[in-house]
Amino acid sequence: MSARSCCNLRPAATESSSHPSSLGRRSFDFFGWMGPGVLLILLPKCPMCLAAYIALVTGIGISAPTAGHLRMLLLVLCFVSLAYFVTRWVRAFWMRVA
Q1: Is the Cα torsion angle 60, 66, 67, 73 positive or negative in sign?
Q2: Beta carbons of 48 and 64 less than 8 angstroms apart
């Protein structure tokens, strides 16, 4: 029995054969970048202002030290998520180039 060599060949992947990303994936990528960026822009520098914003929105009052810790936690979470998205973007870029 002879195996046909044409059956063993795989078609070369081209740009036209790749599937475009879905609308959900593109919107997740967009809002993934925008969420932490907007939060960093709108996050107040003063812990008392953050405590006042939380009190205005939720009706719950928090102390200044708690607001300071919450502010630091939000800063760290924003930077970590932005670092994740940057890393994912760089990896996807290098996969397209290589």
Answers
A1: negative
A2: yes
